[in-house]
Amino acid sequence: MRTTLGDRRQPGRLLAAVMLAAVAPLAWAGESASRAEAQRPNILLIVSDDQGYRDLGCFGGVNVKTPNLDRLAAGGVRLTQFYVNWPACTPSRASLLTGRFPQRCGTYDMMRNDLVNYDHRYTPDEYAVSPEMILGTDEREVFLSELLREHGYVNGCFGKWDGGQLQRFLPLQQGFHDFYGFGHTGIDYFTHERYGIPSMRRGNQLTTEDKGTYATELFRREAVRFLKTHHARPFFLYVPFNAPHGASSLEPGVRGTVQAPPEYLAMYPEGKTTREQRRRGYLAAVTCMDDAIGQLLELLDDYGIARNTIVVFLSDNGGGTGSDNAPLRGGKSQMFEGGIRVPCIVRWPERIPAGGTCDEFVTALEFFPTLAAAAGAPLPRGIVYDGFDMLPVLQGRQKSPREEMFWERRSDHAARVGRWKWVESARGNGLFDLASDVAEQQDLSAAKPEVLALLKARFAAWKQAMADAEPRGPFRDY
Ligand SMILES: [Ca+2]
Predict the structure, then answer these.
(1) Confidence band of 1 (pLDDT split at 50, 70, 90)
(2) Residue 82 in 3-state DSSP?
(3) Above 80 in pLDDT, residue 291?
(4) What is the pTM of this model?
């Protein structure tokens, strides 16, 4: 892979040229353009929220009902060593959509009001100027939706945007033609309020028209509407569910639990302990989401476009409370595998053999170049991308060129170089051999000092490269 370490290019100054380059290559008028359009794949990108590594049947889940995700995997490829770029929501999603490390695209921490964790209640006036209301992913970043739009795609986003709530940060200003969902990182599934603040939007406007309806059903409804309207042309349908994330509710009995509709709760046995009850809600939320995904897959079949539609499914980070990350260590927010290695499925019947498993080392950074290439959209010149087109890897024709990956969350950090993983964090430290110890149980720091030194050196080089990148907001823009 092309190394990004030591790259000193400054993408921002080239942005005008970048956008021109992105607009220029394809002509849209005339029959030949229509034929080219007909051959380009549709893209359905589905993201779940805090779903554990083993919270799908096709990833070994034992008591979870995910028939549609399992069907998706049977028709495509399952990725078993797939990593997201941050162990929690906001930076993971920003990095996915920009194709750049969180530290390079500037969204390298959560954009939220942490005072609610200390039972602070925001007044409306106070909330209006609070961090989660005014912060967003840097507008200079080029989202995948912007690139695809310039190449003729019609784009819809339905769900958890998590990229900022000011109008300039919302999806309609980032290349999407259609948006229904919320701008920040979490809501109450039924009231659509975030700690008491109404948060659902249609386009740029807040709406309470659907208050009371379970959020997953609403995102399903809107995605179905989009598919029915736009199935005949190349589309990019982004469905970032908030399921099965815990609810951000002011109600003490609801807060932190995973809400689900009664008919889905009824599919799982009632729990006796708080832990079992939470697990039940979690599983019900997963199965409700799986049903919604099933309807989208059926529509692709009904319209005869399934063969040339790329369907991607991934969790935005490892599972939190109520999830099952086995056999991985740790979970959401951690640098151990349970926080960053997530279930991922890619299906593209036209190009990827069905029913396969890909055990190659790949990351969410790969999706931007992969999907752009599939869509026939050259990567904008002058922007540093941190991944590569992984289609040959997914097809089983090539080993992954990725040799290393780095993660940083405040003072926690981790590096993977080949089979080796190094973690230094508040939740634990160590050097692990993932080839023989995927559960990260045996710390080899003392036994392999030369390997430890190598990983620390690679991490330091990456950190320097991130420090040298052009500053991006909202946390560092100077
Ligand atoms: Ca998440």
Answers:
(1) very low
(2) strand
(3) yes
(4) 0.93
Cβ distance 311 to 297 under 8 Å? Answer: yes
User: For residue 270, which amino acid is it?
Assistant: E
The rounded Å distance from CA 414 to ligand 1 centre is 19
Q: Ligand 1 centre from 317 Cα, in Å?
A: 5
How many angstroms separate the alpha carbon of residue 341 from the centre of ligand 1?
13
Task: In whole angstroms, give the CA distance from residue 452 to residue 421.
Answer: 9
pLDDT tens digits along 185-204: 999 999 999 999 999 999 99
- Catalogue all structural domains in the chain, each as residue range(s) with its CATH number: 11-402 (3.40.720.10)
Q: Nearest-CA neighbor of 420 among 394, 464, 390, 453?
A: 453
Q: How many Å apart are CA 252 and CA 265, to the nearest integer?
A: 20
Q: What distance in angstroms lies between residue 39's CA and the mean position of ligand 1's atoms?
A: 34
CB 241 within 8 A of CB 265: no
145-155 pLDDT, tens digit each: 999 999 999 99
**Cα–Cα distance list, 80 to 110, 340, 343, 434 (Å):** 26, 12, 7, 12
Residue 34's pLDDT band, with cuts at 50, 70 and 90, is low
Ligand 1 centroid–CA 468 distance in Å is 28
DSSP-derived letter for residue 293 is H
The pair of three-digit structure tokens given for residue 144, joined into one six-digit string: 């995948």
